Amino acid sequence: MAKKPSIPKGTRDFNPEEVAKRNYIFNTIRENFEHFGFQPIETPSFENSDTLMGKYGEEGDRLIFKILNSGDFLNKADQQAYDAKDSTKLTSSISEKALRYDLTVPFARYVVQHQNEIEFPFKRYQIQPVWRADRPQKGRFREFFQCDADVVGSQSLWQEVEFVQLYDAVFTALKLEGVTIKINNRKILSGIAEVIGAQNKLIDFTVALDKLDKIGEEKVREEMLGKGIPQAGIDKLQPLFSLSGTFDAQIEQLKSILSTSEEGIKGIEELEFINKAISELRLQTASLQLDVTLARGLNYYTGAIFEVSAPTGVDMGSIGGGGRYDDLTGIFGLKDVSGVGISFGLDRIYLVLEALNLFPETITNTVKVLFINFGDAEAMASMKAIKALRANGIKAELFPDNKKTIKQFNYANKRNIPNVVLVGESELQTETFTLKNMASGKQQSVNLETLVRLLGDA
């Protein structure tokens, strides 16, 4: 008995309707990327292992899919590592390539490799799949698309202002109103750590602070104490625990907390610039919110940190994020090239649009009209009309087989094709077409010119 076919865990098949909906999101994001001046690039699905390994931390390295060398890969295996069952050392001798983990590191490699061809600042966007050997769960897959936009070669904060506007433009175009664009700054987190005497425990401090909304102030205090942060320092955080109000109000409170930190004050100044610009330019449907607990990407972000959350009432994690990184290309030998970028979470955006019923009904109507097949002579007349319709940008097709009419009509219904055309013996003689609307049942006899006009307007 043949084995039942399956696909790997964490991957998915997409039916025509799902692909149409995903393409709607892709096209909306791509269109806005290009409106904002970003240029498309593509990089290979797999990179040399040394391009990827060591760039994402120990945890990230474990989640990279390695590709076995071609041919007899064991012939060149490290025998000592093989005998010792040392998988880490063995992997490097049998695998020289790996599937990309994200689009950011390949982009850094691209910039360094093509630096003499690039005009800086370089604004690029990239929409391609990535792979992670992660544990699959709702909204998290092993193969998924990333939609990234980055600017490298500019330290200007106007880039951050543009990215806030870009998020707003995309979600407004998707009719996903009421998203919150959260912003923080790595310099503020570093300043807070400095003020409380925890400069060497920045990660421990921010990981605990990030849980404030989930576990509350007392538990956060306990966790910080457990990580070795002094009680006196934690007591200085009291104003931070109760930080609230408007963006401007929170900034004023932060100025008081960080008055002794030069780094922290610089972070405040950067946030003030972005907020002032956005307040004057105004957003369409999104809102900009300061969130000092936001601490994503601390291994590489050096300035602004972004995270986008879905509208209130939708139970979903972040649907976008990004930030400023000052030396990403330095890992490949090109120093002092500042960059800033954001990403859109396609799969989560899809789930949110689905939950809120925001997909346009028309995006799944791939074909506007189906011609019923009554025989070869009728089919030829239909194909000539179909050629004319397609030349006018109208999606049309002929049912390929001369089957019972009811079966052909059922096919149109199941495909959600809104119109059918009948070309029978009488239509052949009069050179006309019977156009039927599948929803209303209304039929009319028309010539080719009228058929093209009616379907073009439909």
TrEMBL record:
Sequence ranges assigned to domain Aminoacyl-transfer RNA synthetases class-II family profile in this UniProt record: 1-400
Cellular localization per UniProt: Cytoplasm
Binding positions for L-histidine per the UniProt entry: 102-104, 132, 146, 150, 296, 300-301
Keyword annotations of the record: Aminoacyl-tRNA synthetase, ATP-binding, Cytoplasm, Ligase, Nucleotide-binding, Protein biosynthesis
GO terms (BP aspect): histidyl-tRNA aminoacylation
GO molecular function: ATP binding; histidine-tRNA ligase activity
Keyword Protein biosynthesis: yes
Catalytic reaction equation(s): tRNA(His) + L-histidine + ATP = L-histidyl-tRNA(His) + AMP + diphosphate + H(+)
Pfam family, one: tRNA-synt_His
EC nos: 6.1.1.21
A single Gene Ontology CC term: cytoplasm
SUPFAM superfamilies on file: Class II aaRS ABD-related, Class II aaRS and biotin synthetases
Protein family (similarity comment): Belongs to the class-II aminoacyl-tRNA synthetase family.
Subunit structure: Homodimer.
NCBIfam families assigned to the protein according to its UniProt record, in alphabetical order: hisS
Protein name: Histidine--tRNA ligase
Organism: Gelidibacter salicanalis
Gene: hisS
